[in-house]
Specification:
CATH architecture of one domain: Alpha-Beta Barrel
Distance between the termini: 36 Å
Radius of gyration: 24 Å
Strand order of the largest sheet: 26-25-23-19-15-14-13-28-27
Structural class: alpha/beta
Low-confidence stretches: none
Helix content: 25-40%
Shape: globular
Mean pLDDT: 97
CATH class of one domain: Alpha Beta
Number of strands: 36
Largest sheet: 9 strands, parallel
Number of helices: 14
CATH topology of one domain: TIM Barrel
Bound molecules: alpha-D-glucopyranose
Strand content: 15-25%
């Protein structure tokens, strides 16, 4: 292993890495030309050819090979993410550059808490340009022989990942829209009537009293503890959501304590910064302070004492719908404009103002953290917010319940948070392209330390279709975080709502049988710093064709995944880098196996089948717990 740490300036300590290496100065920087200008630092990797590939960046749009687009690591709440986007909910600054023409291959981690821009051959196809608008950064360069080993060296540097309890690998049903206990009981009953196994139901924001963290809407959930106990007796766990921001409300203890103790991020005058999220005007806990993390993290006890054993953390980019100040300005301007004949310019000004209220990046320049007594403007350390919210709960819960395991995942993240919780892939859509995106994010996230992850199956936004859910579940069966989730107002997508109930029952039963196998794969991948999902380019480095496969993955060493992700397709083309057995599985007892030689094949796959590939039949028995 060879890792070179280079320090430029006096970087902010992100706590992303766990191995403390001696730092070298910038003269030890390899592979990159460095330009230092007034605007910051620019790292250029030149002479890029068609064969150069770039991997990594964790949760991002586009393919496994990231070359050809411009990305920014800047935690962003973006529910409409198509391939035009540059940033999603997580910010993961690790890439691998593989340049076979020059026999160069290395990993690089830009350890920086704010936005880093990766122009990966977008502006100039012969150049990769990484830029930061700052002159303080740690850079780690990892030189290792194989792609797979670059990842394990990096994972060693950043420390072991969060692992869920084994039950957390079960199937979970979620929907923003379950309003009360009766809704939850109906979901349980309908799953039971359909004979489809269910392990978890997620509680979205409606379980709270007016969206206030660590409160209960007691009218809707009169006895959460009893509900939780009754469901647990049936093998079903309730998993409530916790949001990052705290409602501004006199008499609400969390808000009052936070104000009193100075635990919220502040505005330029030192007053708690107010922005709006679900509960309306809210304050943002300053998760960068250890005592705030401890305070907030210990509040989860409120729910744990009611029998809760798992949580999902949300809106922690942080998402801000509007800031108090900006809303005021917009309303005042609207009143002024209303006195005019709203012509072209005024009309666009008006619509523009409202369109840019939600998620305006300007808000991140309007509030401050307190780091060791000094104010630090939020945008400078933006990507550490979600990470430290996850850490708050992760650390406090471990301290309070050292012998218990909790299911725990978050929306926003950066490298480092992988040690405290998993992540889901944010608000996706019921689009076929998002099945592929789900697959492509898996190895990229594994590279950045995230093993426990998955996407909202069926799609969060937009209306789903039965065949989309079938194909997505057929991939989800192999993915650790196995949750069907959708947005209020979209078509309901609980599995019992469709005609293919027996297929769903079969698929979920396959997954249930696979849990011990998957858990062991997760555990050993974590132990050894291996990826659980491996691109073919990594598993078959010397195979030129494998290097360009973007829609198949190895799951561990023994299973190759090749899901169908297009509507009305009766199957798909698959590239086999070696002779393999094709498995077409309908249920744990019914599957077809046949040999296929190395090369490309069209493989049929009906809607009631899951296809995958193995080298020996014995793998199937192990996978299904029969061996
Ligand atoms: C956010 C979350 C989504 C949740 C919704 C309401 O959009 O990403 O999963 O359902 O908020 O809480």
């Amino acid at each position: 292993m060879s890792i070179t740490k280079i320090r430029i300036g006096i970087p902010f300590n992100t706590e992303a890495v766990v191995e403390q290496l001696p730092a070298k100065d910038v003269s030890s920087l390899k592979y990159f030309e460095l330009d230092e200008t007034e605007d910051g630092l620019f790292f250029r990797y030149e002479d890029v050819t068609e064969k150069t590939a770039v991997y990594g960046l964790g949760e991002q749009v586009r393919g496994i090979n990231k070359k050809g687009w411009i990305y920014g690591t800047d935690c962003t709440d973006d529910p409409d993410h198509d391939e035009s986007r540059k940033s999603l909910y997580g910010a993961h600054n690790f890439i691998i550059i593989d340049d076979p023409d020059r026999a160069i291959r290395f990993g690089v981690f830009f350890d920086y808490p704010g936005k880093v821009t990766y122009d990966l051959g977008y502006t100039d196809s012969t150049e990769l340009k990484i830029s930061v608008s700052d002159k303080n950064i740690d850079i780690y360069i990892i030189d290792t022989d194989k792609l797979i080993n670059i990842v394990s060296d990096f994972r060693h540097l950043i420390g072991k990942s969060y692992l869920p309890p084994m039950w957390g690998l079960g199937y979970g049903q979620s929907r923003w829209g379950y309003k009360n206990e009766a809704d939850i009981l109906e979901v349980v009953k309908k799953y039971k009537d359909a004979g489809i196994p269910l392990d978890m139901i997620y509680l979205d924001i409606d379980y709270m009293e007016r969206y206030k963290d660590f409160t209960l809407n007691e009218e809707a959930f009169p006895d959460l503890e009893k509900l939780s106990d009754d469901l647990k007796a049936q093998g079903i766990r309730l998993i409530p959501i916790i949001d990052a921001a705290v409602k501004v409300e006199d008499g609400y203890d969390v808000y009052e304590e936070g104000v009193q103790k100075g635990y919220f991020c502040t505005d330029k005058d030192g007053k708690p910064f107010v922005g709006a999220v679900w509960p309306g005007k809210s304050c943002f806990p300053d998760f960068l302070q250890p005592k705030v993390r401890d305070w907030f993290g210990k509040k989860y006890k409120f729910l744990i004492e009611k029998g809760i054993e798992g949580f999902w953390n949300d809106m922690n980019e942080p998402a801000i719908f509007y800031s108090e100040n900006r809303l005021k300005q917009v309303i005042e301007r609207t009143i002024e404009l209303s006195k005019t004949n709203i012509g072209l310019e005024e009309f666009f000004e008006l619509t523009g103002m409202y369109a840019t209220l939600n998620g305006n990046k300007q808000y991140y320049e309007d509030f401050f953290h307190n780091v060791d007594g000094k104010p630090v403007r939020h945008d400078k350390v933006h990507n550490l917010f979600g990470m430290n919210m996850t850490r708050a709960a992760g650390e406090a819960i471990k301290e309070m319940y050292p012998d218990r395991e909790f299911l725990f995942f978050s929306r926003a993240s950066s490298i480092g948070a992988h040690r405290y919780g998993g992540i889901w892939m944010g608000d996706n859509s019921s689009w076929w392209s998002h099945i592929l995106l789900n697959l492509q994010m898996l190895p990229s996230l594994n590279m950045c330390g995230y093993l426990f992850t998955g996407a909202d199956i069926g799609g969060f936004g937009q209306n789903t279709t039965e065949d989309l859910v079938l194909r997505w579940i057929a991939l989800g069966v192999f993915v650790p975080l196995f949750r069907n989730h959708s947005c209020m107002g979209t078509r309901e997508q609980e599995l019992y709502r469709f005609n293919s109930i027996s297929t769903f029952r079969n698929f979920i039963t396959i997954r249930k049988a696979m849990i011990p196998y998957m858990y062991e794969l997760l555990r050993s991948s974590n132990e050894e710093g291996r990826m659980m999902y491996i691109p073919l380019a990594f598993a078959y480095e010397d195979d030129e064709r494998a290097r360009s496969v973007e829609d198949q993955l190895m799951m561990g060493d023994d299973i190759m995944l090749a899901p169908v992700y297009t509507q009305n397709a009766k199957g798909r083309y698959v590239y086999l880098p070696e002779d393999m057995l094709c498995v077409r599985m309908k249920s744990v007892d019914e599957y077809l196996i046949y040999e296929l030689p190395r090369g490309s094949h069209y493989v049929e796959c009906a809607l009631d089948e899951i296809i995958f590939f193995v080298r020996s039949e014995e793998t199937i028995d192990r996978m299904l717990g029969k061996a």
